[in-house]
Write a structure and sequence with these properties.
This protein has 454 residues and is an alpha/beta fold. The protein is built from 15 helices and 11 strands. The strands form 2 sheets. It has a 7-stranded mixed β-sheet, sandwiched between helices. A 4-stranded antiparallel β-sheet has the order 8-9-11-10. Helix 4 packs antiparallel against helix 13 and helix 13 packs across helix 15. The structure holds pyridoxal-5'-phosphate.
């Protein structure tokens, strides 16, 4: 494709995406296709000869769109949001256009320096402590960040049978990291939670003491700010004190909720972060930055680098040897890396701090209003605190009714909900966070829920 052809087809693709953005609210939110239906419409063999670009583009409408669940729909309330935005999409386009591979500072200095710089900007916007300044890196996901935290914690820990602690409500990525790192699931301790589903520091203290008495070496605590099930906030100041005293690495997983800290009134979620060894939040969830972009910070980069840097001859260069630069290949599991900082840079500049705050506040206010509707309806109850955009609720008539509501609403295409279990009971999750979601969409979802409840 020549540059001129690229310009022509590129305009057509941008038009296609712009039309999609304008119309996304009109599709059934959940894809209605049966398993195998998308593949059945694709040719069995790759084309032998080049195909016209127009034909490829036409298949987006014909083959791909029916198999899309519309995460950007204003009526998408399942899981957590995965925000896309114009500035982020364009930043990703520029990243693809430049096509650089930023494994080393020397392989494209701007790729590394912009990343360090925008992560410092982000740290300032989120009110992160000074300990993280200059020590940020973009990972693909929060799962990778947890794995990196574990590898760094292991690097710093004394030898022995290492143990890892997180709450019963923590994300499954913690267990996955423990398995990948080769510790084994039997080294993972799931600590009890309180009535609000937040980790109990006294229970953590007791588990650590029991393990020490048994000769184990406590290595890592993962505290969650905004759990995936119900957005519970673990008491980081108390947990941090225990970790300091026990000399255990403390990682804070704020994958979803961290974005809320752009608002000063939500900064309390970051209390105690100065006691943390590492921290992660996902701009790709609730901060208008397309997947993938997970911001990971460490207070002590030496442990991370000790765990992950290996220097084969073919990567040796003068800039690295001088120690004057950061080589991000040493801060992650893979070697290669895309220029992901561009999209975050575009987002932070195009929205500004005030634009980001408006985005988050809007969803928090909608969640509060939705919760008030649920609380006022005698068929339902709100079952967990809702400081962010997620409301957890259930039908008083029991699990089967709640489950039926989710099934019927999702099948209707009017909205998309997900569920969890809290205290063993089926719980409906309605997570507000798509950029296009307005009050009318939340109200329509509530209508759909009440219709489904019969
Ligand atoms: C979403 C989420 C994760 C996993 O995020 P990925 O970036 O997809 O790995 C981890 N922890 C919490 C609390 C989450 O909400």
């Amino acid at each position: 494709m020549t540059p001129d052809e690229f310009r022509r087809h590129g305009h057509a693709v941008v038009d296609w995406v712009a039309r999609y953005m304008a119309e996304v609210g009109e599709y059934p939110v959940v894809s209605q296709v049966e398993p195998g239906a998308v593949r059945a419409r694709l040719p069995a063999h790759p084309p032998e000869e080049p195909e016209p670009f127009e034909r490829i583009l036409a298949d987006l409408d014909e083959v791909i769109l029916p198999g899309i669940t519309h995460w950007q729909s204003p009526s998408f309330f399942a899981y957590f949001p995965a925000n896309a935005s114009g500035p982020a999409i364009l930043g990703d386009l520029v990243s693809a256009g430049l096509g650089v591979q930023g494994m080393l500072w020397a392989t494209s200095p701007a790729c590394t320096e912009l990343e360090t710089h925008v992560l410092d900007w982000l740290a300032e916007l989120l009110g992160l402590p000074e300990t993280f300044a200059g020590n940020g890196v973009i990972q693909d996901t929060a799962s990778s960040a947890i794995l990196c935290a574990l590898l760094a914690a292991r690097e710093r820990a004394a030898d022995g049978a290492l143990t890892v602690y997180t709450s019963t409500q923590a994300h499954s990525a913690v267990e996955k990291a423990v398995r990948i790192a080769g510790l084994g699931t039997d080294r993972l301790r799931l600590v009890d939670v309180d009535d609000a589903y937040a980790m109990r520091p006294d229970a953590l203290e007791r588990r650590i003491a029991e393990d020490r008495a048994a000769g184990a070496t406590p290595c890592l605590v993962v505290a969650t700010v905004g759990t995936t099930s119900s957005t519970a906030v673990d008491p980081v100041p108390a947990i941090g004190k225990i970790c300091r005293r026990e000399r255990v690495w403390l990682h804070i997983d704020a994958a979803y909720a961290g974005s809320a800290a752009v608002c000063p009134e939500m900064r309390w979620i970051h209390d105690g972060l100065d006691l943390a060894d590492s921290y992660c939040m996902n701009p790709h969830k609730w901060l208008l930055t397309n997947f993938d972009c997970s911001a990971f910070y460490v207070a002590d980069r030496a442990a991370l680098l000790g765990a992950l840097s290996i220097l084969p001859e073919f990567l040796r260069n003068a800039a690295s040897a001088s120690g004057a630069v950061v080589d991000y290949r040493d801060w992650q599991v893979p070697l290669g890396r895309r220029f992901r900082a561009l999209k975050l840079w575009f987002v932070l500049r195009a929205y500004g701090a005030e634009g980001l705050r408006r985005h988050v506040r809007h969803h928090i206010a909608l969640a509060r209003e939705f919760a008030s509707w649920v609380a006022a309806d005698d068929r339902f109850e709100v079952v967990a605190p809702h400081p962010f955009g997620l409301v957890c609720f259930r039908a008083l008539a029991g699990d089967a009714v709640s489950e039926g509501v989710v099934e019927r609403v999702n099948a209707s295409g009017r909205a998309y909900l997900s569920h969890t279990r809290l205290d063993g009971r089926y719980t409906i999750r309605l997570a507000i966070g798509a950029p296009a979601t307005g009050r009318e969409h939340v109200a329509a979802a509530w209508d759909a829920i009440r219709d489904a409840a019969g």
